Amino acid sequence: MQQVLQRIKGDKVIWSIVLILSLLSLLAVYSATGSLAWRMDKSSGFYLVKQLGVLAAGLGIIFVVHRINYTKFARFSVVLFLICIPLLVYTLFFGTKLNEGSRWIRLPLINLTFQTSDLARLAIFMFLARQLSVKQKVIKEFKNGFLPLAAPVAIICALIAPANLSTALTLGFTCCVLFFIGRVSIKHIMVFAGVAILAGGIFFSVCLAFNIGRAGTWKKRIENFAGKETTVAGQESADHNYQRDQADIAIANGGFLGRGPGKSWARDFLPHPYSDFIFAIIIEEYGTIGASVLIFIYLLFLWRSIMIFRRCPYAFGAFLSIGLSFTLVFQALMNMAVNVGLMPVTGLTLPLVSMGGSSIWFNSIAIGIILSVSRYVDEMEGKQQMIN
User: Fold this and answer.
1) In angstroms, how far is the first alpha carbon of the chain from the final one?
2) CA 81: distance to chain centroid?
3) Where are the transmembrane segments (predicted)?
């Protein structure tokens, strides 16, 4: 154990944040899966043990990845990006379906499913970090600087959107933020955003007109968020946002101090209280104080990554750390916004807290890469101090 601890490098605050989020995940998942365990005829601790195994594997992934020199990911990024395109196409047409959306690929033999969008998100940020670093001299040019960045993002988002619109929108926005940080012309970013909005509107209209894909689900979620209720013969339609109501009840019950760990009422009524709506359960049990602490932890993670970005002497490592950290924190804030009613319902989970498998592992890879950059920066600064 002592030897392992000595080999742990990188930002110690980020390591502490990962451990804190893992502990909170175990507490929240154990509390939120009571009804699920009963319905699935499992013991009360079954999902706790399962989540513990997933998180332990995630910590192992972080440790292994952070020991790899981050510069090696630059060469690997192009290959990974090219692999993701056929995987996304396969997922779109032949992937495992849930709620009318093809988001997963089931691996043979081991019978494990994973979201290809998680892999694609990791690949596109590694690829963008590489492209931004090598094209800084021509970054203001549209043809030589901007198009080689915008085209890959457009391809990935277009392949993700039909089955997972919220992830595609989140990915597109965070890529635009990385464009801005990478000194891409604001005019070019605005053009990209405008074209994306126009294309998205046309795509949504066509899907809705011909009842293709999940357009009906997207429309219902927007209408429910806007407070538009459909009634049939004086009765509330089944399309009424039941999830939103139950989340509001959980938040109201939580108050300022919360009901206490394991004392949630809404977990027995709220759909997916262990994944999409786990933040509502956290508010109910730990109150506004607990929710505020969780928000602070995610923002602290982003701040520490920004410090790594500012200290890193090489562009690739700097863009890699800030891009991966921003997308993780932005997803967390989006999930929280949905839980408290500031946004329509999406399928985004709370990173490192929601119950999961492959999503936690892909986030662990991202955190491992950030810590790899941090480890390299620390070693460079240590050598510089020795020279001085």
Assistant:
1) 34
2) 18
3) 12-33, 45-66, 73-93, 141-161, 191-212, 277-302, 314-338, 358-377
